[in-house]
Amino acid sequence: MTQLPIAAFIAAARSGRLVSFPTDTVPALAARPDQASQIFAAKQRQPDKPLILMGASPEMLWPYVRKDGKELNQWQQMAADYWPGALTLVLPACDRVPPAMNPLTPDSIGIRVPNSQVAQMILQQTGPLATTSINRSGQPALTTVEAINQHFPDVFTPLASLWPEPQSTEPLPSTVIKWDGQGWEVLRQGVIQI
Hints:
Blueprint: E1 3-4, H1 6-14, E2 19-21, E3 28-31, H2 37-43, E4 52-54, H3 58-61, H4 70-82, E5 87-92, E6 108-112, H5 117-126, E7 129-133, H6 145-151, E8 157-158, E9 175-179, E10 184-188
Parallel strand pairs: 1-8, 4-6, 5-9
Antiparallel strand pairs: 2-3, 3-7, 4-7, 5-6, 9-10
GO molecular function: ATP binding; double-stranded RNA binding; L-threonylcarbamoyladenylate synthase; tRNA binding
EC number: 2.7.7.87
InterPro entries: DHBP_synth_RibB-like_a/b_dom, Sua5-like_dom, TC-AMP_synthase_SUA5
């Protein structure tokens, strides 16, 4: 059984173990950014599918972004309009981002602040985590703590009491938009319509 009380769960995440927790979209499979390669291995994920850096606040995430003057104001405005929420911003990465987060394009990073009290509470204590949906690559996202424990028995989860009631419909992933130097390009249409 890999369900842990929250203090033990936070300790496991901080120590570099693979963890899963609920977000405002699908549950996350997460690890410290320097341990991102574990996520690719667990999911059997191809390196051309980068991970998302999730944080409890924008202030936790901006240090991972290469800031370019006026562009930063536009990025921060988009974040202010939609965060916390189901919008991932793909921006130029600074050298603080481990290459394992985005093996084929290490000069960019997707960042997001989820609109979930549980996720924010966890991320506040762990710091930003490398995340993606919890499932084997190409399979539907797992949405219950029971399914996660069954399919990923080595991944730590918080106690089931911290998880929301399962939805009757398949939850949508976050919308992903990328800054192309001039404006925003939609890479994946999800919950938020851009």
